[in-house]
Amino acid sequence: MKLYTIISLCTLALASCAGNGNKSADTTKTAAEDTTQAGKLNAPAQNMEYCFIRTEGTSNQDTTAVHLVINANKVSGEMNWIPKEKDARKGTLLGTISGNDIKAVWTFMQEGMKDTLSVELELSAQQLLQKPFKVTSAGRQEVDRAAAYTIIYKLDNCEKFKTPVKPAL
Description:
Layout: H1 2-42, E1 48-56, E2 62-71, E3 74-82, E4 89-98, E5 101-110, E6 113-123, E7 127-130, E8 133-135, E9 141-143, E10 151-155
């Protein structure tokens, strides 16, 4: 009788171990699904307007402000780089978004000249990241595609992009 009880307990123990193995696989799947859900929570909302700001320099005197309007997979907006003692670059952004990645062309004016520059951005619900620029051998700036998204913009209230209302006469 003891032998039968011992064999039964061993069988039960092995069955429970096998059951835990299946639960681990199920738990892993659930964790992966949870990660995907968390990613969706950080994903930018579609058909939305976003504004971001970055200040830098010794006294945070240099400002870059970005205004994005997302409509389906299209992105438009403005980007203004306003350093304290240099010529500003103010212009428009036009591009596309795929997931969180934005590839756009920044058309701006600087020193009375019109120019363009590609930009690569990563958008989340709370911040905007940008790949830095590098200078080519020809002396032009371009996106450093080998670099990570290291330039960080904080969410802003879009005040810098609102057109002031003129008082009625």
